């Protein structure tokens, strides 16, 4: 564990809180120390109120904030005397603790403080750091974990037996510290939980954390040698329908669409193919804190209903222990381990699934090292359940962003690099969907940098490439819910007398045949969509109202419309809706250069501005207008509509 301390960077940190932010980010940059909102840090200062009173203050990380990106706004100022008085109480309920911590805030607008705020407050050092370091957790989650930790740290660290996080842990650790702390004590080892270090300066607390974790890593390096991960068998070349079926089952149990992001790298495949996987992975997570992201156990294999029934049975057995009535969370897995496709991470969004993946990967590495030291012994099910249904932990999830319209769903958009296709990508992402963008242009990969976007350069007339793209999409996000057929070519104006066969076939190949191929290949995935598949075809005003010089384009779009109508008839029994849009005069697309636009406007005797609005409503139609309607067709408002054809043209007299 290398120190990331840089004196010049530290010198730029303003004041004690700025220093606290700096070293918090150093901790957060190392995933072997903390992951996704885990860990917490604090600093004690003296603040002056508006009335001129000096107040001893604890600045502690706000609940749910990520140490890797935290700013000063992520810390909550609390009255230190209030925390220390709370620590002297014999008991304190979660509800009372949350209320008292809220009352102790110097800034009502500050985030809810970490549930470990009281412990941070009573420890006398100015700076306090807390991590869930992988190496430490690995050692403590072995049959002889306490002995190993004691041998490793000696008198430098006080060992705190496992206690439920929150007030009980704060009181237990504080009593132990008061009774046993020595001048040499630099930290606390909370078994089944993590490490605390402290110091009078930010650097002292940070460097002590690095030193303690390094000892654990060095011990593991001396005593554990894991073989290179080599899968017994490689993943199958085609898994998309199997993955989509599993995603459908997971979504059904969850009660809402979920993404299933799968990973077939050697480490994931080798772990998922271990003969002793049920015995290893079936014991529990690295720390109770992880349960709100990953559930207590992964699904091993694909029997989702059996997994859900086991969760229901566990809830029935353990919930009566709660002093207050509990409502069961959905019983769907968040981690899937399967010998055919390796590791699967489940989430309502790509970012949520990536968090699950990160935690799962760190956990499987810890499990394998602990197993080599004598076995993996995490906390028992009852302890994990207590944290999973702990109101203060659940608040972290409940305070997150509201679910978007297409959360957990997957859309594929063709022609995604520009124009209407790119606008469709943006609109779908804003509505919470994961999106696969296909385009012949390589710029499709740069359309969005969000976790929920995958851009693939694909020639849609190449059936092998299209099939590979669908396979990649299913492995990336778990399946397909929405298909937006947008890609097409608009050749130069040419009369039928001048239209050669090669040009005709080229236009039909892109505008019609490639869409037939994609529809055929996508159908099995759309059929497995948790809320039913949806297809939106962007055709053209030229279907109901063709113009001279566009025979190939008009015929291809008319044939595509007929193809969509037949698909609507054939696929309705599969729960798949197919609808068609007929845009016209969408000028913010690649084919409408300023020169072409000016030439066309001049041919009508209009200014460019008047030509843009040359329709019944006198409005300009943009790519975004088309994209918004395409998304609306995929939404609940049109859940009873299929086979529809809707103009997006501002009103065209010939069409009307």
Task: Present the secondary structure layout.
Blueprint: H1 7-11, H2 15-28, E1 40-48, E2 54-61, E3 75-79, H3 80-86, H4 94-103, H5 117-122, E4 127-131, H6 134-140, H7 145-153, E5 157-160, H8 167-180, E6 187-190, E7 194-199, H9 202-223, H10 240-254, E8 259-263, H11 266-272, H12 277-281, H13 291-294, E9 299-300, H14 304-318, E10 335-338, E11 342-347, H15 350-372, H16 381-388, H17 391-398, E12 410-414, H18 419-430, E13 434-439, E14 453-457, H19 463-477, E15 482-485, H20 501-526, E16 534-538, H21 551-571, E17 577-583, H22 594-603, H23 608-612, H24 623-634, E18 645-648
Parallel strand pairs: 5-6, 9-10, 12-13, 12-15, 13-14, 15-16, 16-17, 17-18
Antiparallel strand pairs: 1-2, 1-4, 2-3, 4-7, 6-7, 8-11, 10-11
Helix pairs in contact: 6-7, 6-15, 10-19, 18-24, 19-20, 20-21
Which descriptors apply to this entry?
L-fuculose-1-phosphate Aldolase, Rossmann fold, 7-stranded parallel β-sheet, 24 helices, Aldolase_II/adducin_N_sf, Bifunctional aldolase/short-chain dehydrogenase, oxidoreductase activity, NAD(P)-bd_dom_sf, oxidoreductase
């Amino acid at each position: 564990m290398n120190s990331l301390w840089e004196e010049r960077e530290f010198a730029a940190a303003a004041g004690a809180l700025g220093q606290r932010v700096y070293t918090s980010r150093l901790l957060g940059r190392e995933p072997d120390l903390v992951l996704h909102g885990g860990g917490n840090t604090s600093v004690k200062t003296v603040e002056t109120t508006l009335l001129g009173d000096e107040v001893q203050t604890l600045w502690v990380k706000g609940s749910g904030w990520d140490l890797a990106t935290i700013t000063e706004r992520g810390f909550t100022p609390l009255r230190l005397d209030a925390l220390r008085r709370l620590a002297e109480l014999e008991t304190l309920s979660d509800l009372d603790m949350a209320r008292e911590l809220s009352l102790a805030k110097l800034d009502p607008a500050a985030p809810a403080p970490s549930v470990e705020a009281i412990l941070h407050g009573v420890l006398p050092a100015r700076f306090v750091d807390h991590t869930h370091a992988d190496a430490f957790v690995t050692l403590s989650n072995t049959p002889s974990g306490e002995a190993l930790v004691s041998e490793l740290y000696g008198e430098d660290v006080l060992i705190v037996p496992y206690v439920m996080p929150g007030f009980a842990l704060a009181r237990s650790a504080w009593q132990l510290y008061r009774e046993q702390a020595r001048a040499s004590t630099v930290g606390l080892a909370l078994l089944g939980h993590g490490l605390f270090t402290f110091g009078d300066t930010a650097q002292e607390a940070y460097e002590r954390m690095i030193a303690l974790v390094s000892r654990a890593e060095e011990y593991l390096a001396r005593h554990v040698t894991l073989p290179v991960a080599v899968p017994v068998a490689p993943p199958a070349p085609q898994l998309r329908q199997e993955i989509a079926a599993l995603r459908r089952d997971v979504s059904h149990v969850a009660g809402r669409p979920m993404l299933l992001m799968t990973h077939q790298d050697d480490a994931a495949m080798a772990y998922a193919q271990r003969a002793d996987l049920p015995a290893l992975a079936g014991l529990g997570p690295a720390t109770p804190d992880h349960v709100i992201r990953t559930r207590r156990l992964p699904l091993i294999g694909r029997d989702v209903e059996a997994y859900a029934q086991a969760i229901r049975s566990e809830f029935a057995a353990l919930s009566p222990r709660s002093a207050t009535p509990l409502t069961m969370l959905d019983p769907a897995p968040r981690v899937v381990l399967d010998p055919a496709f390796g590791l699967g991470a489940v989430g309502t969004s790509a970012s949520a699934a990536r968090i699950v993946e990160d935690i799962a990967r760190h956990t499987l590495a810890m499990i394998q090292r602990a197993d080599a030291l004598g076995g993996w012994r995490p906390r028992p099910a009852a302890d994990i359940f207590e944290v999973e249904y702990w109101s203060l932990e659940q608040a972290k999830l409940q305070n997150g962003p509201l679910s978007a319209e297409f959360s957990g769903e997957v859309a594929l958009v063709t022609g995604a690099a520009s124009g209407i296709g790119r606008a469709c990508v943006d609109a779908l992402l804003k509505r919470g969907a994961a999106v696969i963008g296909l385009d012949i242009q390589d710029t499709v990969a740069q359309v969005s940098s969000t976790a929920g976007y995958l851009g693939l350069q694909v020639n849609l007339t190449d059936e092998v490439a299209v099939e590979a793209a669908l396979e990649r999409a299913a492995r990336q996000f778990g399946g397909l819910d929405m298909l937006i057929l947008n890609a097409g070519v608009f050749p130069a104006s040419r009369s039928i007398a001048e239209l050669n066969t090669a040009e005709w076939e080229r236009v039909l190949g892109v505008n019609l045949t490639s869409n037939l191929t994609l529809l055929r290949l996508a159908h099995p995935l759309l059929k497995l969509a948790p809320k039913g598949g949806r297809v939106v075809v962007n055709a053209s005003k030229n279907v109901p109202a063709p113009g001279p010089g566009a025979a190939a384009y008009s015929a291809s779009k008319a044939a595509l419309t007929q193809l969509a109508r037949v698909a609507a008839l054939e696929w309705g029994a599969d729960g798949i809706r197919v609808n068609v849009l007929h845009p016209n005069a969408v000028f913010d697309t690649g084919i409408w250069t300023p020169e072409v636009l000016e030439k066309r406007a001049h041919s009508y005797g209009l200014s460019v501005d008047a030509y843009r609005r040359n329709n019944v409503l006198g409005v300009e139609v943009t790519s975004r207008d088309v994209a918004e309607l395409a998304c609306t067709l995929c939404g609940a408002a049109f859940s009873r509509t299929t086979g529809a054809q809707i103009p997006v043209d501002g009103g065209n007299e010939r069409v009307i």
